[in-house]
Amino acid sequence: MSLIVLKNIKKEYGKKQVLFNDLSLEIDQGEFVGLIGKSGAGKTTLLNIIGLITDISAGTITIGNYKNLSMKSKNAMLLRRHTIGYLFQNYGLVEDESVLWNLKLALEYKKIGKGEKLRKINKYLNQFGLDDMLNKKIYQLSGGEQQRVAIIKLILQGSKIILADEPTSGLDKDNEAVVMSLLKKLNESGVTIIMVTHNLNLCDYFSRVIDVEKYR
């Protein structure tokens, strides 16, 4: 069953640069999709269109039961808050704050007590091998550790769709493998993941690979 449906999407910048023209794409619940293509092909723009953080010039976007979505619509805001999670190569964390502070943000809208929030945070830190990092500042962590914290944040948010933009960029091979393994486990638990990458060696992790250049 299609979870995300893009139909006849047009994305243009000004009047002369058309990035996508009549793009149609469907992504099923539970897929792990890799977006590939050369630099400038529109991989990140397509990810942002799906994530409702870049507007389109024409066409329709449907996510779940929400149809005709636009970036500024109320339903788009609800999806960004409760359903869609973003994983970036720069981790998307507040560097001068602690791991605990950053992870508490993910539970801001959850109606659970402070003790339960802390229990959940410690549970995932322990599972991800970060049990002694609770009070450390983000800038004190390695790149691989920061990306693991970012993934925990998405789990705590309850994100059902994860949009990942080069999440292993800058990581060494060991940390790259750790991050991809964690994403694969999340996908196996039912989370739909769409990931931009330039590293074709990661394609074995994906259930489907899309060459974005073919959609231009």
UniProtKB/TrEMBL annotation:
One of its GO terms (molecular function) is ATP hydrolysis activity. SMART domains: AAA. PANTHER family: ABC TRANSPORTER DOMAIN-CONTAINING PROTEIN, LIPOPROTEIN-RELEASING SYSTEM ATP-BINDING PROTEIN LOLD. The keyword Glycoprotein does not apply. Keywords: ATP-binding, Nucleotide-binding. Residues 4-216 form the ABC transporter domain. InterPro entries: AAA+_ATPase, ABC_transporter-like_ATP-bd, ABC_transporter-like_CS, P-loop_NTPase. This is Bacteriocin ABC transporter ATP-binding protein. The keyword Nucleotide-binding applies. It comes from the Bacteria. Pfam families: ABC_tran.
